[in-house]
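Our working data are protein records whose layout never changes between entries. Getting from the letters to the tokens is the skill we practise here. To make this concrete, we reproduce a full record directly below:
***
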Amino acid sequence: MINVFKPNLTISDRLSVLNALIKNEISGTSFQTQKFEDQLCKTFNRKYAVAVSNGSAALDVSFQLLRLKKGDEVILPAFTIISCLSAVIRSGATPIFCDVDENTWNMTLDNIVDLWTENTKAVLIVHTYGLTADAINIIEFCKQKNIKVIEDTAEAHGQKIEGQVCGSFGDISTLSFYANKHVTTGEGGAILTDSLEYYNSAKQLINLDFNSQNRFVHENLYWNYRLGGLQSALGISQLKKINKAIKFKIKQGKNYIDLFKKYDLNVQLPKLSNQNIQNHFWVFGIVLKENINRELIINNLAEKGIETRPFFHPLHLQPAIKEMNLKSKPLPISEKIGKQGFYIPLGKHVKPKRQKNIVLAIKNAIDEVG
């Protein structure tokens, strides 16, 4: 089976973790985690960083920092991962779903502007699949309306918009370091901000509300979302190679596009760039035309030893919220790509010859079952 992804771990990664082991720096309060947070600040041009156990925890804590209440609304894209929705709901606010752009699969200002009401207290910007959301225009709109912005940068490590690095746009930004990210710690995440107030609160929220004066006397029932020293040591090493990882993914993405263009396939390919923003190809996704059954194609490829993953199922159609009576207008782009999109193997384990074979297998699958 050719897997959709495999972590790319080098000798230097292993040595970094081994060094932390030798020094017994394994806890979430070790020097390794402090150093990792410092490196994150430099990489993402932020004043403060708080490393946490995963990207979902980062989102949860970020929304708790906003202290939203019942009746407050948060606009977020319907085409994204479920953890974004979960964090909004757990904050007590009401999610308001927006659609995404047909060509970039990301949210734009046009997608959210008509959804704004006096109850809108936050917008969750999410950069998806290798291109970016319309961050600059959305940020400007939110400033005018006094709306807080949380920026999910889980899939956009190292990405830039007009020279500004993703992860530096939101009042609070979040990262994930899951095994398939450009920078991985296996599991892990981070919260980024320039606000000392948010930083101090986040430190309390992720650390059981411990305080230096009366350590075991707690004013709040908070969580333990700390990131361990071994994971941080891996992250430190991984951050040094982020540009190399991105360069490789771009090369792979371009090669896939060239291979697909050799065949007259009934599919939508990802854009190489959008408004001078280079696609970093966190994944390589394709969208089938509506007359082609995606599940048959995916099953056909699996039989040939090629793993795939379907695109995100739209949030407003998730069974988990069926009983919540959340209202949403039809979101045709999210619904279309959520039904017809899937992504294919990408990474160091996918050599050019394998890329060629994968594209040929997709062509044959479409010919056979399409």
Remarks:
- Residues 242-260 form the longest helix (19 residues).
- The CA atoms of residues 259 and 356 lie 7 Å apart.
- The longest strand covers residues 120-126.
